[in-house]
Amino acid sequence: MNHGIKFPIWKLRRFTRMDNKLDTIYITTAYNTYIIDDKSLKGDLAKRRYQLLSMPILNDYPLYPLKEKLNLLRQMVKYPTGTYFIDSDGLIFKYKKSSRLNWVECKKIKSWNKVDNRTVFYVDKQRMPYVTDLELDYIPYASIMYTETGPLIYDFTTEYHKPYKRKI
Q1: Long-range contacts formed by 55-58: CB under 8 A, 24+ apart
Q2: Which of 130, 124, 166 lies closest to 145, judged by CA?
Q3: Which of 29, 32, 88, 122 has its CA 20 to 30 A from that of 105?
């Protein structure tokens, strides 16, 4: 699993084909061929898709509807191996459950600040900041998963929980 993914991510529905033509990503389903992204445009996935709305190419191919937005790792792990997702940078990846168990610990959120449309927060006994698109106004705990590539935000909770192991 690639831990370089940037949340939020969106689940892709079944498709029969994916093509990349001059940095424009097309997805063909049983119903139609859609444009999902144009990487030649500036910005993250959301900004590029917004720019696409005013482009004439959409006269030929509609914009692929992204319906299931996932903000947390916990939301992604419920899907079976083989599910495709697209992240906020436009990286399309196929989810594969690992066989390795990773520790998930509940940490008290010490402080947080809103920066643009994101929340930067710190947890007890760690100097590293975490970033999320979610509002943390009334959320006292973050569940942090410790992986080979470093800690990841797994979930947020209003109640403390004991450490446990989970596959991603």
Answers
A1: 57/24
A2: 166
A3: 88
Question: What beta strand segments (E) does the chain contain?
Answer: 9-11, 17-21, 24-28, 33-38, 68-70, 84-87, 92-94, 101-115, 118-123, 130-132, 141-147, 150-157, 164-167
Question: How far is residue 120's CA from residue 131's CA, in Å, rounded to a whole number?
Answer: 5
Please answer whether residues 17 and 30 qualify as being in contact, where contact means their C-beta atoms are separated by less than 8 angstroms.
Answer: no
Q: CB of 1 within 8 A of CB of 145? A: no
Give the mean pLDDT of 151-168. 95
Per-domain residue ranges of the chain:
9-94, 101-167
The pTM for the full model equals 0.86
Tell me if 63 sits within 8 A of 57, measured CB to CB.
no
Q: Quick one: three-class SS letters along 40-86?
A: CCCCCHHHHHHHHCCCHHHHCCCECCCCEEECCHHHHCCCCCCCEEE
Residue type (1 letter), 75: Q
pLDDT digits (tens, 9 = 90+) for 54-90: 998 888 999 999 999 999 999 999 999 999 999 999 9
